[in-house]
Automatic annotation (TrEMBL):
Subcellular location(s) of the protein: Membrane
Native species: Citrus clementina
Keywords: ATP-binding, Kinase, Membrane, Nucleotide-binding, Serine/threonine-protein kinase, Signal, Transferase, Transmembrane, Transmembrane helix
Similarity comment: family membership: Belongs to the protein kinase superfamily.
GO cellular component, one term: membrane
Keyword Transferase: yes
Name recorded for this polypeptide: Protein kinase domain-containing protein
């Protein structure tokens, strides 16, 4: 555009000089003044032509250099992007790229309290899951936690973070690899929602369930022991365990995760987990450690075995006073004492047959070791992997009082009369605090409310 404008100005100037020469010839005839004007005009015209030629050559050279730099820059970006992918380093996406990949965020896979997940396809054909994190304070905290926890983690049973996007003053995005078969809850709970995220779900066979248990144990063992900083997931549950095309487990959703240095034994954080998976010491505000993940994992093992939620509310019509919380681990414990362990296995699996009772016993024993109320009694995840793979014997787990089961009715008491719930909460906190006193510092009796699923 600038070159075109310069050419127009040059042409106009030459034309004006020619007109000026014609006017001078008519008015001055062939006088000395006329020849002086003609000479000056010719010099100016030649100077204009010289400037045009020099500018054109300069412009041609500039275009050549720009083309060369663009080509080299594109090659460098491609090479840089390739090296980042090989190294597993997340890349930065533009918001427009994610809008095009997700068709303006149309295909919803799932959503939580502060984030939604959409399916998308990148320009190179890669299928991805784009997590959009909303909210100011909580969204920023979740975004930083997730990136810090998963960015440098490389494990076959951990979801891979491909990239991220930060919109100033807007939502934040995390781009993950797309996992074909959705979350584990669609495959073990009969009443799990099938429509959300377009996952058909089904009933996972016993062999696949046992393999899922080992896969998740390996992923958590890696986070706890093999990362440069110890990573606490703090939200282990079936909804955060994905199944790939071969039904191998992939642990996802690190929005609540915490990083700990090797010399830290525990750290303090607010209670933000899910009912039924929170370790007692976390509820009592004694801080969190890798033992909290182990507790949650034990609960998931029982859900894998029974095909039902660990915590469920039995409703009796509109009369809330008759509603009752049912705690599956307590039922399993009673059946074990009665020698009727196979009665707690998912009915759909027992109808099909072919279940290894030895594996069931091993899985349940490991689960009860993991959900011990005293954190120091819980095995490490590396030890759990050895137990499940049969490399070490699994001793009978100590009997647990399961005091935590009595906490489940507190919300109901709060509906009927807040003072009753608070008195029971203080009494139970004191009781459980005495049981855990040998494991950690004295607990706080000012509790946060248990969050729902």
């Amino acid at each position: 555009m600038e070159d075109k404008k310069a050419n127009i100005i040059a042409a106009s100037l030459v034309l004006a000089l020619i007109i000026f020469i014609i006017i001078a010839r008519v008015t001055l005839k062939l006088s000395k003044a006329f020849f002086l004007i003609v000479g000056a005009d010719i010099a100016v015209v030649l100077a204009v032509f010289a400037c045009v030629i020099i500018r054109r050559r300069y412009h041609k050279r500039r275009l050549l250099l720009e083309s060369k730099f663009v080509t080299e820059g594109r090659e460098l970006r491609i090479e840089y992007s390739f090296l980042r992918k090989v190294a597993g380093v997340p890349i930065k996406f533009r918001s427009k790229e994610l809008e095009e990949a997700t068709d303006n965020f149309q295909a919803l896979l799932g959503h939580g309290s502060s984030a939604s997940v959409f399916k998308g396809i990148l320009s190179d054909g890669t299928s991805v899951a784009v997590k959009r994190i909303n909210g100011e304070e909580h969204g920023e905290k979740e975004f930083r936690s997730e990136v810090a926890a998963i960015a440098s983690a490389q494990h076959v049973n951990l979801v891979r973070l491909l990239g991220y996007c930060v919109v100033p003053g807007g939502p934040r995005y995390l781009v993950y690899e797309f996992i074909q078969n959705g979350s584990l809850d669609h495959w073990i709970f009969p009443t799990s929602r099938r429509s959300e995220g377009h996952y058909s779900g089904g009933c996972l066979s016993w062999d696949l369930r046992y393999r899922v248990a080992i896969d998740v144990a390996k992923a958590l063992s890696y986070l706890h022991n093999d990362c440069r900083s110890r990573v606490l997931h703090l939200d282990v549950k079936p909804e955060n365990i994905l199944l790939d095309e071969n039904y191998r487990a992939v642990v996802s959703d690190f929005g609540l995760s915490k990083l700990m240095s090797r010399d830290q034994s525990r750290c303090i954080t607010t209670i933000r987990g899910t009912r039924g998976y929170l370790a007692p010491e976390w509820i009592l505000e004694q801080g969190v450690s890798e033992k909290c993940d182990i507790y949650s994992y034990g609960m998931v093992l029982l859900e894998l075995t029974g095909g039902r939620r660990n915590v469920s509310l039995i409703e009796h019509g509109n009369d809330k006073s008759k509603n009752k919380w049912q705690y599956f681990p307590k039922i399993v414990n009673e059946k074990m004492k009665e020698g009727k362990l196979m009665e707690i296995v998912d009915q759909r699996l027992t109808d099909e047959g072919g279940i290894d009772e030895t594996q069931v016993r091993r899985l349940v024993d490991v689960a009860f070791w993991c959900i011990q109320e005293r954190a120091r009694l819980r095995p490490s995840m590396a030890r759990v992997v050895e137990m499940l793979e049969g490399r070490v014997a699994v001793d009978d787990p100590p009997d647990t009082q399961m005091v935590i089961v009595d906490w489940l009715s507190i919300d109901q008491d709060d509906d009927a009369g807040g003072d009753i719930g608070r008195r029971r909460l203080a009494a139970l906190a004191s009781d459980l605090g005495r049981n855990l006193a040998t494991d950690s510092a004295p607990c706080s009796l000012t509790m946060s409310v248990l969050s729902g699923r």
